[in-house]
Write a structure and sequence with these properties.
10 helices; mainly alpha; 174 residues; single chain; 45% helix
């Protein structure tokens, strides 16, 4: 949990299972991603830990890293072979949806460089711009616009991002 790489190596040598889930279903790599311990992620990977395993509602270590704003952990996961472009939760939210929801504008360019579509629709037809507008994240909307994303794409109810901002009272987005 605290990124002690030497302890990880020693535990594995003593027979510890590096892919064992805890009561919440998280494996050590999820914990390392949550806390941004990039060396622990590297060590776990070198010792054979799985990087692309879902817990709960489709949350992989990459999702956990994005939820916590751990950009370095996300980059290391990608470098170690985690496939980020195919990541989706149970309702088809992508990593970009989670970035938009949490307001991590600085991750948008990293996602784009990783080949992640920034305009994929989830089950409701919402794209990350809808989600950012719904949560009032102007910086994310700006980053998406700078990445070439169309702010006028409608969801399944024919609502665009401006509808979401107005519905949730985010005047600064309008």
């Amino acid at each position: 949990q605290y990124g002690h790489e030497e302890a990880i190596v020693a535990l594995q040598a003593l027979g510890a299972e590096l892919n064992a889930p805890n009561n919440a279903g998280e494996m050590p790599v999820h914990m390392a991603a949550r806390h941004g311990h990039v060396m622990a992620i590297r060590t776990l990977h070198q010792l054979g830990a799985t990087l692309h395993v879902s817990i709960g509602e489709g949350h992989t270590p990459a999702y956990v890293a994005v939820q916590q704003g751990q950009i370095a952990a996300l980059i290391v996961l990608q470098q170690m072979g985690a496939v980020l472009a195919d990541e989706q939760t149970y309702n088809n939210d992508t990593l970009a949806h989670w970035v938009a929801q949490n307001g991590y504008a600085e991750i948008i360019s990293e996602l784009q460089e990783a080949g992640i579509a920034l305009n994929d629709q989830n089950q409701q037809g919402n794209v990350p711009a809808h989600v950012a507008a719904q949560h009032g994240h102007v910086s994310v909307l700006t980053a998406l616009h700078e990445a070439g994303i169309d702010m006028g794409m409608p969801n399944h109810e024919r609502q665009v991002a401006a509808h979401m901002a107005a519905q949730h009272g985010h005047v600064q987005v309008l």
